[in-house]
Structure formats: C-alpha cells, structure tokens
TrEMBL record:
It comes from the Bacteria. This is WD40 repeat protein. The keyword rRNA processing does not apply. It comes from Thalassotalea piscium. Pfam families: WD40. InterPro entries: Quinoprotein_ADH-like_sf, WD40/YVTN_repeat-like_dom_sf, WD40_repeat_CS, WD40_rpt. Keywords: Repeat, WD repeat. WD repeats lie at residues 162-203, 203-244, 247-288.
Amino acid sequence: MEICKRFYRHAIYALSITLLMACQPISKEPIQRWKHAVEGAYAANISNDGTLSVVSSVHNGINLWNIEKNEVIYNWSQQQDNADNLVLAVDIADNNSHVLTASRTEFSIWNASTGKSEAFWEISDTTIRDIAIANNASAALIGQSNGVVLHVSPKSGRRLEFLGHKEKVNSVDMLPNGRIAISGGNDFVAFVWDTQSGQVIYRFNHPSRVTYVALDPKGRFAFTADSKKSSNIWDLKTGELISQLQYNNRQEVYSAVQFSKDGLFLATGAPSRKVSIWDLYTGKRLNSWRVTPKKDTRPASAVVYSIAFSDNNHILTESSSGYAELWPISQ
C-alpha cells in the first residue's frame, strides 16, 4: 500500500511539473552566471547541497568557491604548472568536509574547513581515470586505466583493490559513508560492490563500454550509461531496473549526473553543453538547456563537468567554459 501511495504522489507531482513546463516556457538563459576560470576549466565539481564548488584551471590552480558569495575560499596547487600534472578530476564530500583532487598520476585530500592538505599519493604503472571521496575523508576511491579500482582509507592506511573489471575503468562513485562503491568500464560492465570485502553486490551488463556511473547520496538509486543507447536508473536496494532514459538521438553521453533530493528527478550534463532534467520513474526528458560555450570556440563547445540541485526550483552547473550557472527548473 505504501509503495502505491508513493508512486501515486510521484505521478501527481511529475504531472504538475510537466504541465507547468508546457504552459510556461522555461528560459534558455541562466538566471545568474559567474566566471570561475578565465581561460576555461580542466575539472570542476559542485557540492551536493549547491553551496561549494571546486574548479581546476591552468592559471589559477585549484580554487574552492563559496557559490552564494561568489568568493574563493582557498587556492591550492598540485603542480598545476606542469602539463603532465594538471588536476583533471575533483570531488567534494557529501558533507562538504573534504575535497579530493587528482592529476593523471597523483591525488590529494584537502580539508575544506582549514584549507590544509591532509594526504598525498602517487600512482605508478597506470593512470587515474576518475575519483570519489567519502565524508570526513574516511575513504577515497580511485578508478584506474589498468582496470583496478583502488579504495583507500587515509586514517588507517587500509587499501583494497577491486579487480572485477577486465579493461579500463571510466567512472566511479561511492556512498557518503564509503561502504558501497560503483564502477564502470570498457568491459561493458558496471559493478556495485562492497568496499570492505570487495564482493560484488550487483553486476549491470551493457551493450557497449560503460562511460558513466553514479550513486544517489541517500542510497536509493544507481545510474549507469554506456557509449551507445542504454542509460539506466536502478533501485539500489533491490538491483531492479526502475527506468531507462528515453531519447531519439542515436546516442547520448553524460559527463555529470545528480539525483534530486526528493528522489523524483535526475539531472544530467553532457560534453555537448546539454543539461537535461528527467522524470526518474518514467525516463522522460522534461526539459533541457545548453550551458555557455567557451569563448571563441568554433563550433561553440563546452563540457558540463558538474550539476547540482540548489533547491527544488533551481540547478547549478559548472563547465569547461569556466562558468558556473544557475538555471530555473520551472518559472
């Protein structure tokens, strides 16, 4: 009975949002735009609550921003002046306690309150593909080009290598407590696995290489997408498929994904500047926008690095153009 009520509430709410969007066209221009990197960014991540943003750029190093005040809180350097050590992946803990940054061969943990560096590692014989950090820096997750996913507990020094993938790992994510991880790779598989035992919880097979994976911070959902036309939302409690994103294009590739706090919607960003809002339970696209392109690029281009729901009515984006932008979901 409770499940029926939940789906009924979702259907009514989703219908009202859809009707509102249909009756009142949403502006394709952002409400606000902030310049966070003069010559464009190499990586960026917005905190899940939409209050902080970390941006990596060649001229400014790594900046941690207070989005509301549009002020730089801290400026960090991880050998930004060396082309081989540019920070190409960043992640903010769900509780905003720490920031994880990584170049191709090194990763660092920064305390977001004090600004101090708390840990630094070097990777040998492979390169870093994607990263994630748990609350209070209790764990760091490193997806690598050799197919290994490394789970590190900085305080205890514990290391676990997940060896489920047979080819390059493209994307990783982790729950805020660091206990459950997801990873996807060129072997056409996404795994949900236990970081204490290394045991596989779910195996999600795809028809092509898995390009993006994400977990809902509240532990309700998982997202997996491949390079062709399979983008799936899964129930993290049961492993059952909830919906598939519906689109007419031959393929859609994603570079950013975020679940709404109420569990009704999914926001995605793409390398094509495209930002979309989806109905989580039907997979239907409710609306889309395009972020500001990088200056003087032909054709106009920008990669959406990160996306977050600032509240039920707005989303935030950070892109390679160096801009943070605030968008209305409805108006």
